[in-house]
Design brief:
By secondary structure, the protein is of the alpha+beta class. It contains 6 helices and 7 strands. Strands 1, 2, 3, 4, 5, 6 and 7 form a 7-stranded mixed sheet that branches. The longest helix has 13 residues. It comes from Kryptolebias marmoratus (Mangrove killifish).
């Protein structure tokens, strides 16, 4: 994520992500290291929220005198384009933690097969589609796209890791694979300082309620 150093804000006239679509997401649990595998990536919409907040902050109208009163002899000058851009939030303001996910855009493949491809491309784990457990389906982005999202659960081990992941650069993906230790999962989920999707929070709670008792694992709730 530190490699993002050039950001340009322009009108969005066309995007596949602003149309009605269907999505698959996968909660990945590594049974070797007892950690969850998430992805971290830059989201323009999240960055724009921070950009809008920064844009509304206007410089003070005048300098303060020693008595704390505004100086009448000096007026605030409008910021130049260069000065304005220097006040933009850093790229990290648009980065979020998410489940491995992808668009359902291959009609010849099942949801499980598409989810398997996403796990391989984004996170580098080769998991048979038959090993994916369906958790549930729900609507996301109801105020914008109304997308239907289907969530799966996949258990992997270090033996399943065949690459570093990172997504498909030619598709505009720039993804960092992140590991969240199991014993820190619920603290991570409820820490409001960590930008994350609702899918992460829900899936961690699902794991705590359904998988932790089975494996007698503590999620530190």
């Amino acid at each position: 994520m530190e490699e993002i150093n050039s950001i340009e804000v322009v009108p969005c006239t066309e995007s596949n992500y602003l149309k009605p679509f269907r999505v698959v997401s996968v909660l990945i649990f590594n049974t070797t290291s007892h950690c969850f595998i998430l992805v971290k990536q830059f989201r323009p919409a999240v960055y724009m929220c921070e950009w809008e907040k920064a844009k509304t902050k206007t410089p003070q109208a005048a300098e303060k005198t020693e008595e704390g009163e505004a100086s009448e002899s000096q007026e605030a000058q409008p910021a130049s384009e260069e000065e304005s851009s220097s006040q933009w939030p850093p790229a990290s303001a648009g980065v979020t933690y998410e489940l491995c996910a992808g668009l359902v855009d291959k009609p010849d493949l099942s949801l499980e097969e598409i989810a398997r491809q996403e796990v391989l491309e984004e996170c580098g784990y080769d998991v048979p589609a038959s090993k994916l457990k369906r958790i549930t389906s729900y609507r996301s982005g109801v105020g914008v796209t109304g997308a239907k999202q289907t969530m799966f659960y996949a258990e992997v081990s270090d033996d399943n890791c065949v690459s570093a992941g990172g997504g498909e650069p030619h598709e505009g993906e720039f993804i960092e694979v992140v590991k969240v230790p199991l014993h820190e999962a619920m603290t991570f989920a409820y820490d409001e300082r960590i930008p994350k999707t609702m899918g992460v929070i829900f899936s961690f709670i699902w794991f705590h309620n359904n998988m932790s008792p089975k494996y007698k694992i503590s999620t530190n709730v």
